């Protein structure tokens, strides 16, 4: 397995895992990308290799958003920046997985840069946030503005972690915050990312997505409730929905093996009811 990591052009974190001679797979992470405190490192690379082991025969790029996001950036702007990366590193046409905020960005990437996207999997997202999701994003943005990093990280885990971890992790994070500086590398990026998510509404471009699309979500996702998920699926002509019963927003990490198996079958050309969990 090849393993590579660092900063693209000195400003965008990336991890490259798998087989560099394989077909390209580009993964767009969620809000956690902007909450990172450390430079890309081998430990995180190994963790990602474990998380995405279903794809290690491919050339997998986990690419974060640039550090020091320009003020006023939207998810559409972020998609344009990803298109530049895909073009510069000759990754097209790529299969794309977008998770949460990364899924919002991937909607514009697929709609407006069709030549770069072969097929796309949108995980734990909708064409726009749900009402409660908007309340949460605004609350997290306020916390970020005040520098309440242990609180925002604890709250995001409470809303997305699976099972008992939802109860245990927030308390552990708060305790850790008394002794460890949880301030992210670029605090303003958290505020700007949450603002971009709050302003995201891709309903007017979903019909422009020609790439086969798989929407993967939990029916208990409080940020993107089922009606928002179905709105996303119904807006894309060539789309399939895989809805996990009882799962919440943290689907990509609570059920990674199943999500990746379904995504792999989709990328390999399988379509139909067998995709459903």
UniProtKB/TrEMBL annotation:
Q: Which UniProt keywords apply?
A: Hydrolase
Q: Which residues form the AB hydrolase-1 domain?
A: 74-250
Q: List the coiled-coil residues.
A: none
Highest taxon of source: Archaea
State one molecular function term (GO): hydrolase activity
What the entry lists under PANTHER family is as follows: AB HYDROLASE-1 DOMAIN-CONTAINING PROTEIN, HYDROLASE, ALPHA/BETA FOLD FAMILY PROTEIN
Protein's recorded name: Alpha/beta fold hydrolase
């Amino acid at each position: 397995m090849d393993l590579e990591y660092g900063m693209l052009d000195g400003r965008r974190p990336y991890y490259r895992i798998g087989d560099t001679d394989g077909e390209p797979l580009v993964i767009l992470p969620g809000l956690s990308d902007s909450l990172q405190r450390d430079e890309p490192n081998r430990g995180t690379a190994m963790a990602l290799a474990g998380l995405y082991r279903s794809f290690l025969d491919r050339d997998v790029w986990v690419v974060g958003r640039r550090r020091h996001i320009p003020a006023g950036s939207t998810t559409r702007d972020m998609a344009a920046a990803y298109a530049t990366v895909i073009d510069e590193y000759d990754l097209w046409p790529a299969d794309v997985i977008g998770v949460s905020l990364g899924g919002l960005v991937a909607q514009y990437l697929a709609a407006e840069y069709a030549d770069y996207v072969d097929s796309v999997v949108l995980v734990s997202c909708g064409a726009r946030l749900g009402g409660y999701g908007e309340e949460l994003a605004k609350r997290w943005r306020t916390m970020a503005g005040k520098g309440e990093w242990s609180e925002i990280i604890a709250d995001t885990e409470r809303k997305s972690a699976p099972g008992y971890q939802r109860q245990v992790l927030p308390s552990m994070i708060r305790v850790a915050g008394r002794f460890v500086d949880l301030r992210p590398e670029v605090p303003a990026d958290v505020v700007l990312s949450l603002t971009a998510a709050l302003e995201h509404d891709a309903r007017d471009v979903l019909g422009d997505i020609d790439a086969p699309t798989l929407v993967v979500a939990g029916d208990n996702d409080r940020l993107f409730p089922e009606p928002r998920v179905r709105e996303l699926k119904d807006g894309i002509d060539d789309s399939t929905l895989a809805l996990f019963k009882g799962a919440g927003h943290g689907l990509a990490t609570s059920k990674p093996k199943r999500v990746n198996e379904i995504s792999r079958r989709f990328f390999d050309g399988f379509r139909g009811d067998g995709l459903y969990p």
